Amino acid sequence: MERCQRVLFRRLGILHDEEDASVERILSQYMAMFDGPLPPHAIAALTAIFGLDDDDECAMDAALLPLVDEGITDVADKVEETFA
């Protein structure tokens, strides 16, 4: 298992001090984590890993959303014209 995978799985609370844990078992536990609501520590880890707690990024997303919305509307109109 790669070092970055071990770090991710430790942050998600799946891997503890099991240096010889099989990849299959760890991936099985990872997938099972999504069978129900995510535990708070997993949400915190995923938020940090993907940079979702970045206020500047959130502000940029909010500013770009109206532009994307217009583009999506144009694409939807063209798709309707094509299949009409």
Topology diagram in text:
Blueprint: H1 3-11, H2 23-32, H3 40-49, H4 55-83
Can you offer a commentary on this structure?
The chain is mostly helical and 84 residues long. It contains four helices and no strands. It is elongated. The mean pLDDT is 79. The chain folds into two domains: 1-53, no CATH class; 54-84. It has helices spanning 3-11, 23-32, 40-49, 55-83.
Total strands: 0
User: Ends: how far apart?
Assistant: 52 Å
- The rounded Rg comes to 20 Å
Mean pLDDT, rounded to whole units?
Answer: 79
- The helix content is 55-70%
Q: Could you state the oligomeric state of the chains shown?
A: single chain
Quick take:
The chain has 84 residues and is mainly α. The protein is built from four helices and no strands.
Keywords:
84 residues, mainly alpha, 2 domains
